[in-house]
Design a protein that fits this description.
Layout lengths: L24 E7 L7 H15 L4 E4 L6 H5 L4 E3 L5 H11 L7 E4 L5 H11 L1 H7 L2 E8 L5 H12 L4 E7 L22 E3 L4 H7 L6 H6 L7 H7 L3 H15 L21
Parallel strand pairs: 1-4, 1-5, 2-3, 2-4, 5-6, 6-7
């Protein structure tokens, strides 16, 4: 999601009053109103992916108590305290700058409603669209299925918002799928994070580990099994690339993801 030319076409329902073609500034908001949905893992992998193609990219961690994203990429991530007015304004003032630098925000579930309320109060998304900034919402599924209503509420408030569902198979098992809802169609093309090996998860928590570099590096014979386990991350990066390609041509990010499902059959549980 690095710096690229402006989209060659607009998607249906694109944000109102978009700026004329110029340098793009992708802003990815990784979020869920629920705890233990996997947002920090997704934000960590996404920032890793973005940094692999655009080193000046920035991360923002809104969990001031246990900033997981900042712990992994301390030199690229700023901790934003949304509990204070100063922290809120510092974050929004940074995100509204059309500087061509991709930004990834790990939105703590405690700050979820506060962020979107302040975004509404400030007219953040409308201002972002007018400045050539391209917000992407990576909304995570959760066991309580609150994501369905949340997606509907976001799209009702901002019809042009680009929302992609993220389903972490290691954390959420939605056996019955999302109930009928105007936003339920988002579940047809979710971004899937597979259940990952415990060793890989520990590696992902280590500071300054770049997954792309690890996957490309030749491993000693004794680490072939580890190389294979880390290879399980490759499909995630492929999906990030598909989302990026869709947005490059002015389509919703989810439009190029494989059509699939976020549910599992009971027999495979």
């Amino acid at each position: 999601m690095g710096e690229r030319e402006a989209p060659v076409q607009q998607a249906a329902g694109a944000g109102p009053d978009r700026a004329p073609p110029r340098r793009r500034t992708p802003v990815a908001l990784v979020c869920s109103p629920q705890t233990q949905a996997g947002t920090t893992l997704t934000a960590r992998l996404l920032l890793d992916y973005v940094l692999s193609g655009f080193e000046p990219a920035l991360g923002f961690d809104t969990n001031r108590h246990e900033p997981g994203l900042a712990a992994v990429f301390p030199r690229r991530t700023t901790v934003a305290d949304l509990a204070s007015t100063r922290g809120q304004m510092a974050l929004f003032d940074t995100l509204i700058v059309g500087d061509g630098v991709p930004k990834v925000i790990d939105l703590w579930h405690v700050s979820y409603r506060l962020f979107f309320q302040r975004a509404a109060d400030l007219g953040f998304f409308e201002e972002a669209w007018s400045r050539g900034i391209e917000p992407l919402i990576l909304l995570h599924t959760d066991r309580k299925k609150r994501f369905v209503d949340e997606a509907g509420a976001l799209l009702a408030r901002w019809p042009g918002l680009d929302v992609v569902l993220v389903h972490n198979r290691g954390l959420t098992d939605l056996r019955d799928g999302p109930r009928a809802h105007p936003a339920a169609h988002l579940a047809e093309r979710p971004l899937i994070v597979p259940k990952l090996d415990a060793v890989v998860l520990r590696i992902l928590e280590e500071p300054e580990i770049r997954v792309h570099r690890v996957m490309r590096a030749a491993q000693p014979d004794g680490n072939i099994d580890l190389q294979q386990k880390i290879g399980d991350l490759a499909p995630i990066f492929d999906q990030f690339r598909l989302v990026e390609l869709a947005r490059d041509v002015g389509l919703p990010g989810r439009s190029m993801l494989p059509r699939g499902t976020i549910t599992r059959r009971r027999s495979s549980a």
